[in-house]
Amino acid sequence: MSRKDFIQKHGATCDNWNWSWSFVNDQEKFVIFGAWDKHTEGRRQMIFDKKWEFKNHSSGRKNAGFNQSLRHIRLVESGAYRLFTFPMQYGLATTNEPDSRKTKIRGFTPKLTEKTLLRVNQQWFAADLDSSSHIEPLAEELPAQATYTEGAKVVVTLNKHERDANARRACINHYGTQCIVCGFDFKITFGDLGDGFIHVHHLVPIASIGKAYQIDPIKDLSPVCPNCHAMLHRTNPPLLVEDLKKHIRKTRDSLGNQ
User: Are residues 202 and 249 in the same domain?
Assistant: First the structure.
């Protein structure tokens, strides 16, 4: 089976079958990344790096698949799409191009595994769902598997390291996509590109809960921008939303008095 046949078997597609390393199924809302063995360490695989934008930084030649894969990363970060990977074996092929050698797929394993997305600085990793990595997954970086009940009292049942996309939508439908801490609105700044984008913060960290629990998307979730989300998680346990608001006001007041 070819890689194209394998991907199409799962209903996914891409912009170009020659240079794509990520694929999307918009109907079922999931993204597939090929995970190189050279970028696999323990129970996680680096699937995207901002440094991969250019084939050769000295020549400024861009990787054709970079922008597509960045779009796919954003889909997973938004919480609307799940993430899957399949193993690929790394190789190099000699060419007549100036760079002389280019990446070659020596082989791949036709098996999809659902993952959770972790970001470390300018690198993104696919980690096992039950990974005990020291990097705590943020709310929007967790795989969707849960139940959802509509009605006057909205309740979602979650397991450890699980997130329900419907709970996220319920939170956003109630609060909107403006950061509840600093007021930042991605659509105002980025236009259509930022429309609908926001992180959702669990007031009770998922990683600290060892068993199934029930969550109210209105009481237990808050929409926050990535910067405020990162600051909330700078401490363990995370800062309270109101405490971060007070810290921002205090910082701004002190700067204004200088």
Answer: yes
Q: Is the pLDDT of residue 151 over 60?
A: no
Residue 35 falls inside a structural domain: yes
Domain containing residue 165? 139-256
**pTM higher than 0.85:** no
Vertex 21 angle, CA 135 and 162, to 5°: 35
Predicted confidence (pLDDT) per residue in 115-138, tens digit: 988 887 788 999 887 543 333 333
